[in-house]
Amino acid sequence: GDSVITVQLTEEDKVEDDVVFYLVFTGSTVQHCTSTRKINPGSLETISPGHDCCETVKVALCASREGHPVLVVAEETFQFVQDEAYDAAQFLATCAGNQQALNFTRFLDRSRPPAADVDFLDEKVALAFRHLKLPAEWNVLGADQSLAENIPRETLMHFAVRLGLLRLTWFLLQQPGGRGALSIHNNEGATPVSLALERGYQKLHQLLTEEGAREPDSWSTLSHTVHSGAYRVKHHRGLDVYLLTAEA
């Protein structure tokens, strides 16, 4: 999700300005409807919705005009593919609480990836996490909630903070066990909060310690989402388009 989609209209589809175009994506369990914006008389632009699984879906381009029935202008297929970010999010979600796996992820820190790579990783993995089907009982600290907070251990929060992943840290903070992870020491005696301070990640430290700290900005998160039961409406301010997602 969150990629820009361009729609090229044929000559016969170029119509008056009062016609509004929508894209409707129909998957196996959810359906998305996105508004579009006109770039020029022959081109439309919108944002691809974040989908709940990797599959090929049907896409319909619909035209709407006040006082007239909605017309299906064209139909096509669209494939949501599994990429490295999705794999990484799946791995991390599955390994919450797995000390062997979490210690293994520390090699990323030793390789010290460039800031641009870190930002890309943060953006993509956080986005993938948002669309994972996490079990209802999923917890940042793993499945074993009987562990006392004073037992030293590595957590997903340590991983996210160590690499300076602002958006992933924000996502984890909103999940069960996220706030609890902030006070847990690892085997070196570091908490996620002390790690952020030690590494000079000022924005990250502020995110972890300031009450009411806001979500970090990025082009994909410059949006406002409203949830209501089986429906979700998202407004992308950059392109000024709306996405409605509903259970099919």
UniProtKB/TrEMBL annotation:
One of its GO terms (biological process) is positive regulation of canonical NF-kappaB signal transduction. GO terms for molecular function: MAP-kinase scaffold activity. InterPro entries: Ankyrin_rpt-contain_sf, Rho_GEF. It comes from the Eukaryota. SUPFAM superfamilies: Ankyrin repeat (SSF48403). GO terms for cellular component: actin cytoskeleton; membrane. This is AKP13 protein. It comes from Regulus satrapa (Golden-crowned kinglet). The lineage of its organism: Eukaryota, Metazoa, Chordata, Craniata, Vertebrata.
